[in-house]
């Protein structure tokens, strides 16, 4: 057999295998992971952030969406130049009569820029899934228009205007059982929450106060040093201004 033909055949086979490995997607095992969701919610969307994330770990959340009247739910994250799909897992669908459908039994398309979940032909229903996002923040389009509730991990807040962020600003913040709840009556575009560990807020503002005191002390010290130098120059006669020969009340010579 021709050597070039053998090499070409092997190359095609390797590319095919590699494409299958790198092509991404969501396995049935991921779709059918176990997770507990709160289905009895007043809002159309409830997002429970149960893992805040860290320097090398993502934020993890569970979301329940009211998908009544929809035939699909398109999930994506906005990027600078392009969108990316949301890698969902532990997917469950609950119909109005309380019947559950696992994620592997749903028609789910995982593409380059979005994940599309095709919903059963029910008039009413809820879709739940678990996903990851960037550490200490949640930012996503409003996949469903309506009321939203975001629940932060215990000990976390988002109200500080420097280290936290809540958008839209109309969100009302309350604390229930030690956890911060942010509720919007109506969202149609997107939501964004940047949160922090509450004790870090005191550390941050303490550091700001300490830096401000150091800066103020430095300014006062510098100002006093300048004043001392000026006084010393005056004592040595270096800062004595010579009077202008025309500054007295007498007119200049020849003008009297």
Report on the architecture of this protein.
The chain has 256 residues and is α+β, with helices and mostly antiparallel strands. Helices cover 24% and strands 34% of the residues. It contains three helices and 17 strands. The strands form four sheets. It has an eight-stranded mixed sheet with strand order 6-5-9-2-1-11-15-14. The longest helix is centred in the C-terminal third of the chain and has 38 residues, at 198-235. The protein starts with a helix and ends in a 21-residue tail after the last helix. Residues 5-23 have low confidence and may be disordered.
Strand and helix layout:
Blueprint: H1 3-22, H2 28-31, E1 45-51, E2 59-66, E3 72-77, E4 84-85, E5 89-95, E6 100-102, E7 107-110, E8 115-118, E9 125-133, E10 137-141, E11 146-151, E12 156-157, E13 165-167, E14 172-176, E15 179-187, E16 190-194, E17 196-197, H3 198-235
Parallel strand pairs: 1-11
Antiparallel strand pairs: 1-2, 2-9, 3-4, 3-8, 5-6, 5-9, 7-8, 10-16, 11-15, 12-17, 13-16, 14-15
Q: In percent terms, what proportion of residues is strand?
A: 25-35%
**Coarse morphology:** elongated
Strand order of the largest sheet: 6-5-9-2-1-11-15-14
Number of strands: 17
Output the structural class: alpha+beta
Overall mean confidence score, pLDDT? 83
Radius of gyration: 33 Å
Count every helix, treating DSSP H or I runs of 4 or more residues as helices: 3
Helix proportion of residues, in percent? 10-25%
Order of helices and strands: HHEEEEEEEEEEEEEEEEEH
Low-confidence stretches: 5-23
Biggest beta-sheet profile: 8 strands, mixed
Distance between the first and last residues' Cα: 123 Å
């Amino acid at each position: 057999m021709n050597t070039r033909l053998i090499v070409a055949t092997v190359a095609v086979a390797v590319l095919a295998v590699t494409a299958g490995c790198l092509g991404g997607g969501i396995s049935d095992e991921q779709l059918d992971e176990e997770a507990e969701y709160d289905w009895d919610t007043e809002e159309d969307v409830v997002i429970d952030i149960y893992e805040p994330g860290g320097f090398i770990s993502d934020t993890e959340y569970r979301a329940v969406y009211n998908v009544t009247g929809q035939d699909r739910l398109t999930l994506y994250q906005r990027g600078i130049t392009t969108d990316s799909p949301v890698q969902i897992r532990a997917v469950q669908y609950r119909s109005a009569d309380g019947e559950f459908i696992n994620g592997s039994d749903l028609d789910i398309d995982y593409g380059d820029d979005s994940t599309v979940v095709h919903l059963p032909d029910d008039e009413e229903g809820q879709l739940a899934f678990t996903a990851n996002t960037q550490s200490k923040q949640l930012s996503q389009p409003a996949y469903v228009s309506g009321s939203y509730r975001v629940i932060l991990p215990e000990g976390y807040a988002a109200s500080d205007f420097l280290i936290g962020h809540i958008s839209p600003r109309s969100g009302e913040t309350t604390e229930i059982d030690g956890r911060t709840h942010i509720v919007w009556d109506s969202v149609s575009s997107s939501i964004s929450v940047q949160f922090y560990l509450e004790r870090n807020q005191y550390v941050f503002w303490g550091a700001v106060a300490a830096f401000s005191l150091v800066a103020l002390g430095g300014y006062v010290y510098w100002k006093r040093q300048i004043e001392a130098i000026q006084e010393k120059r005056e004592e040595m006669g270096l800062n004595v201004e010579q009077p202008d020969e025309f500054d007295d009340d007498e007119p200049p010579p020849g003008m009297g």
